[in-house]
Design a protein that fits this description.
334 residues, six-stranded antiparallel β-sheet, 2 helices, seven-stranded mixed β-sheet, 3 domains, Type 1 dockerin domain, Immunoglobulin-like
């Protein structure tokens, strides 16, 4: 059976081919977007040559003398020698592998989670492309998620998608496009002054910035060769009060990310520079100066398990229970 699905990634929740996809934001103001990026999931070992594969002989994939490798690339088997003994060839057991590839930010750390647990990290290249693989999985359905962090320590939204893994085959998840990070230089800006909206994406990407409250305004800019973008937004057109901003990236007409996380600022009668967040004392289990779903997933793993690490046992009573989650909720940053 052909096992190929094109998954539609939305900011929020989308349904494509009967599969739920999440691009998780940190603010309830984040809305569904119709501009999408397509993630392709293919399987090596199903006997069907799919996108990105040179061959696929199904169960006959393997090393030479097989013509197709377990990675669905054509083997280069040298010419045969003289006649030998009548030995038999046993094909090795195919590995169960899931490969991930896509775009993040130049030289950024990309983190992969499986069922809310961190399983791999890698560093994106200067072109923002990344790839990573995990193996040794049992057959079944998994929830995978990826996120990255820009050079200022701002984290992307968590891009989450389900993958069905078949034993003995290689599943390729490609076309991942992590949404840009975003920040502002002021928590409050005097109406009529500019507010700097900036962040990081893939190099030379077209960045669309949305600023909204009751009415939505858009601005465009281009990221530089390091993926950095900056736009000085004139607040003259904005009413007094709280406004929200977010951004998305595109490369030509081929790749379009979802919108990233939403942040807020206030338009008022004075200008207040945004303060640097103080170091978090508790609940930051992966030491990124945030308390969010990643920390929650780490604590959830140790819930009611014996001998949790002291960093996870937030009240030091030798166990992880609802008290620890209450402490985490107090320090929650999202």
């Amino acid at each position: 059976m052909i096992y190929k699905r094109f998954l539609t990634i939305f900011t929020g929740v989308a349904i494509a081919a009967g599969i739920l996809i999440f691009a998780m934001g940190s603010n309830a103001q984040e809305s569904l977007q119709l501009q999408v990026n397509v993630v392709s999931i293919t399987v090596c070992g199903n006997g069907v040559v799919e996108s990105g594969e040179q061959c696929d002989a199904g169960g006959a994939n393997g090393p030479c003398p097989a013509t197709c490798s377990t990675f669905c690339t054509t083997n280069s088997c040298g010419g045969g020698g003289g006649g030998g003994g009548g030995g038999s060839y046993t094909s090795p057991t195919p590995q169960t592998v899931v490969n991930f590839s896509g775009r993040a930010y130049p030289k950024s750390t990309v983190t992969l989670l499986k069922d809310a647990q961190i399983v791999a990290t890698t560093i994106a290249g200067v072109d923002a492309n990344f790839q990573m693989s995990i193996s040794g999985l049992s057959a079944g359905n998994y929830i995978f998620a990826v996120y990255s962090e820009d050079k200022n320590g701002n984290r992307s939204t968590l891009l989450t998608f389900p993958v069905s893994v078949t034993s003995g085959v290689t599943t390729n998840v490609s076309g991942i496009f992590i949404a840009p990070t975003i920040d502002v230089d002021k928590s409050e800006v005097k109406r009529g002054d500019n507010i700097a909206i900036f962040g990081q994406s893939t190099p030379q990407a077209d960045i669309v910035i949305s600023v909204s409250s009751e009415e939505e305004f858009f601005a465009k800019t281009i990221s530089d060769r390091d993926g950095i973008y900056l736009h000085n937004f004139d607040t003259t057109i904005l009413d007094y009060g709280v406004h929200y901003t977010k951004s998305k990236a595109s490369i030509g007409n081929l790749l379009i990310s979802s919108y990233g996380r939403v942040i807020s600022f206030k338009v008022g009668t004075i200008t207040v520079l945004k303060e640097i967040k103080p170091e978090i004392s508790k609940g930051d289990l992966n030491n990124d100066n945030r308390v969010n779903l990643v920390d929650f997933s780490i604590a959830a793993y140790w819930y009611k398990r014996p001998s949790p690490p002291s960093s996870v046992d937030l009240n030091g009573d030798g166990k992880v229970d609802l008290v620890d989650f209450s402490i985490m909720a107090y320090y929650w940053t999202g």
